[in-house]
Amino acid sequence: MLSRRTSSRTRKSRERMLRLRVNSPRIVFLDCLKVCSRLMKLGIAILVMVGVGIGLGYGWQKVFVENEEFEIADVKILTTEGENARFLSHDRFVSKTGINLEKTIFAIDTEELQASIEALPEIKTAKVSRRLPGVLKIEVEERSPVAWVACRSLKIRERDPASGLLVDEDGIIFRCDSGELSEIGEKLPVVLVESAQRRQIEEGRLIEHEGLKYALELVKRATEKFQGPERPARVMVKDEIMLEMKTVNGILATFSYYDQERQINNLVKLVSHADLQGKSLAKVNLIPRRFVPIHYR
């Protein structure tokens, strides 16, 4: 029994001594020193990285952004095929983007500039890049207008260079917003509808009016077939199935929405036949497959 008490007392004493050693002020102090040392090293590392970042930023600013050697000397505006852009002239580019040509090419935010160019109605996509020592290269994919869009109920006037609407080969409507577009537009036909809803003819969107879609298709087909005075000047939506095309030389031709290729080919034959006879077509209804009614001048 005595031996057991002694053994138990000894174990308790050792445990107490062990706890005292672990929780002693000296050990706590040393642990604090270790933590402070680690924090100090981390702080120094952060300060070094911040200093390096500031130094690099300052170096970039001085060596590139403010270096006169990289001032903008030229702006090349090209299509994606490498040709000069048709509609985005140098003056229009400067006025619409607000670019400061006295800056260096590295002072220009290329992403912001690209967004400004793509906001122009005649531009599909744009890409801006730098060429040393002082060239900004602008590559654009331009819309190719094929006709004017007009609607009397919506007060969209035809061939209006100030507020008129053009439509490209994909059926996207966009504003005639430049002198270059107006100049091209002088030779373009008009697709016209008397009445439509606003949502069917909206800038920056596809044509939603069913009749105008077929009118645009007819314009594209007829323009491919006729390059001279028989090319279309206007295609009007008459009703839910008929279109009326007036050519530059005054021929009035009635088409249906459907089977346009056959009707165009018949018009080609009729024009050729009239020329051989020394006559001029005045009016023709191309919808019937046989016994097509024809009027001559």
Question: Could you please describe the fold and organization of this structure?
Answer:
The chain has 297 residues and is an alpha/beta fold. It has two domains: 69-142, membrane protein fhac (Ubiquitin-like (UB roll)), CATH 3.10.20.310; 145-296, 3-Layer(aba) Sandwich (Rossmann fold), CATH 3.40.50.11690. 40% of the residues lie in helices and 22% in strands. A nine-stranded mixed beta sheet has the order 6-5-4-7-8-9-10-11-12, with helices on both faces. A three-stranded mixed beta sheet has the order 1-3-2, covered by helices on one side. A hairpin with a 4-residue loop joins strand 9 (242-247) and strand 10. Helix 6 (210-225) crosses helix 7 (260-276). The longest helix is centred in the N-terminal third of the chain and has 41 residues, at 25-65. The radius of gyration is 38 Å and the shape is elongated. It starts with a helix and ends with a strand. The model has no long low-confidence stretch (mean pLDDT 86).
